[in-house]
Amino acid sequence: MASGNQKGNPLLRVVGGSQTSRHADSTSAKRDVEWSIFMARAQAGDGEAYRRLLTEITPYLRLLVGRHHRSPQDVEDTIQDILLTIHSVRQIYDPTRPFTPWLVAISRRRIIDRLRQQGRSARRETPLNEDHETIADAETNLETRADGRSVREAVEKLPPGQREAVTLLKLQEMSLKEAADQSGMSIAALKVATHRALKSLRAILGKGDIT
Questions:
Q1: Residue 203 CA to chain centroid, in angstroms?
Q2: Domain residue spans of the chain
Q3: Which of 40, 36, 38 is nearest to 52 (CA)?
Q4: What is the domain class of 158-210 according to CATH?
Q5: What are the helix (H) ranges across 90-146?
Q6: Rounded to whole angstroms, how far apart are CA atoms 103 and 82?
Q7: Are 199 and 80 contacting, i.e. CB atoms less than 8 angstroms apart?
Q8: What is the mean pLDDT of the chain?
Q9: 28-124 is classed in which CATH architecture?
Q10: pLDDT tens for residues 116-151?
C-alpha cells in the first residue's frame, strides 16, 4: 500500500528525483576535484597522473563531441584536437579553479572549429576542406611559451611526412592548399598524415615527456 502511494505521490517523486540529482552533482564534483589534482600533478611533471587524466577524460570527451558529430571519424579527430590543445596549454590551467568548465570551454572551441570546416566543405560540394585547419584562439595554439619545447621535441620524433604535415598545418597554421603547394603532397595525403601525426603526438606526449 505504501509502495503504491509512493508511486502515485508527485511530491515523493520530486523528492526522489532531487536525491538522484544531488547524487549526480556530488559525483561530478568529486570527479572534477580528481581531474584538477591530476592536472596539477601533471603540471609538476607527474607523467602517470597525466596519463590517468587523459584516460579518464577521453570517454567524457567522446560523449561531449558525439552530441555534435555523427561520423565516428569526426568524433575521434575532434578528440585528438582537444587532447593536443590541452597538452599545449596545460601550464596555464589554474588548479584552484574547476577543471571541467575549463575542459568544456576548450572542447567547444575545437568542436566549433570542425563544424565550421565541415560547413565550408559542404558549401563547396567537396569531401575535402581546403580552408585553414588551425586553432583560432591565441591561448590555445599548439605552440605556447609554456611548453613549446616539449611539443617541438615530440614533433621531431614523428616520421618525416607526419612531421611536415603537422608543422605546416598546426604550427605554421597554413591552409591545406598552402601546405600542399609547399610540400608537394596532395591535400588528401596531408589530411591523412595530419590525422596520424596527432594520434602519434598524443601517444608521445602521454608517456611522461612533458617537461
A1: 14
A2: 28-124, 158-210
A3: 38
A4: mainly alpha
A5: 99-123
A6: 9
A7: yes
A8: 74
A9: Orthogonal Bundle (1.10)
A10: 877 665 554 444 443 433 333 333 334 333 345 566
